[in-house]
Amino acid sequence: MSPTAPASPRLAIGFACGILSAVIWGVQSVISRQSVADGLSAGDVTILRFLAASLVLLPFALKRLKPFPVGKLGWKRALILTAIVGPSYSLILVGGAHFAPALHSSVISPGLIPVATALLAVLVLGERISPLRVIGLSIIVAGVVVFSFEAMANTPTREGAWIGDLLFVLIAVLWSIFGLLARRWGADAVEVTMATCLLSVPLLPLLALVQPVNLLQVPLSAIALQALYQGVIVGAVALFLYTQAVAILGAGRAALFLPLVPVVTALSGAAFLGERASALEIAGMALAILGMVVALKAPSHA
């Protein structure tokens, strides 16, 4: 399919899936901040995420996944993808937040995912990217730097913050690998979502051993909010949407929507938490979006 056929309904669906997944992940940080205020630990949120997603998906998985619970992916590929986007992802994210400010994660990871995806495609798969795509990626990086400049400069020095930032870079690499593998294996978005959620459940007791669990000490409304958003909307819906975007657009083009995440975080933070973006942050958002548009218009390969 020609990447320059914007009128294609399938292409429009891919764009919509990419944008919606970015919106969901952008709002996620606001919901996550609420979980802290409600007294939930990172272990609690991870357990709720995969339990809720699996409960919703199980009836459909029983009918669709043959063999259960991995489907056409097979055990090896399903386990590899689960290792990338399962509970370990949550632990790395939580570990990064322990060392570095949470805002770093909403800027570093989404901004670097399209860059990491392009680099991996060139270095590992031997693909060539067009000069226009390189320009677009460069603009995205510039936007991320501008957007994060004040946050990085004004954040009090925290011992070991560089460790957290490196973990956020690792998150970007993991998502890039996930996107490239899902595309290369021709993975069905629905089956990937089901298999990775279901295969994560047996790992949750191990997670409970290394993370504090406060589920019995918090209001039921707080549990319901996290189960619905982190589990159903993030754990199932967003993963499906992103995998669908990868299937339609390719890993490189799907990843270009992720710079929208800090933009959505800033807008939702203003709406729900009363936080206001500075002029520099707004300029950074504009640059990131411009870079995304430029890169999306570029051919997939040189």
Can you describe this structure in just a few lines?
By secondary structure, the protein is mainly α. It has helices at about 10-35, 40-65, 75-85, 85-100, 100-125, 130-155, 160-185, 190-200, 205-210, 220-250, 250-255, 260-275, 280-295.
Give a structural overview.
The chain is mostly helical and 302 residues long. 77% of the residues lie in helices and 0% in strands. The radius of gyration is 19 Å and the shape is globular. The N terminus is likely disordered.
Radius of gyration: 19 Å
Outline type? globular
Helix percentage? over 70%
- Global structural class: mainly alpha
* Number of alpha- plus pi-helical segments: 13
Number of strands: 0
SSE succession? HHHHHHHHHHHHH
Binned strand content: under 5%
* Uncertain parts: 1-7
Amino-to-carboxy terminus distance: 15 Å
Query: Biggest sheet: strands, sense, closure?
Result: none
Average pLDDT, to the nearest integer? 86
What order do the helices and strands come in, and which of them pair?
Layout: H1 9-37, H2 42-64, H3 74-85, H4 87-99, H5 102-123, H6 131-154, H7 161-184, H8 189-200, H9 204-210, H10 220-249, H11 251-255, H12 260-273, H13 279-297
Features:
302 residues, mainly alpha
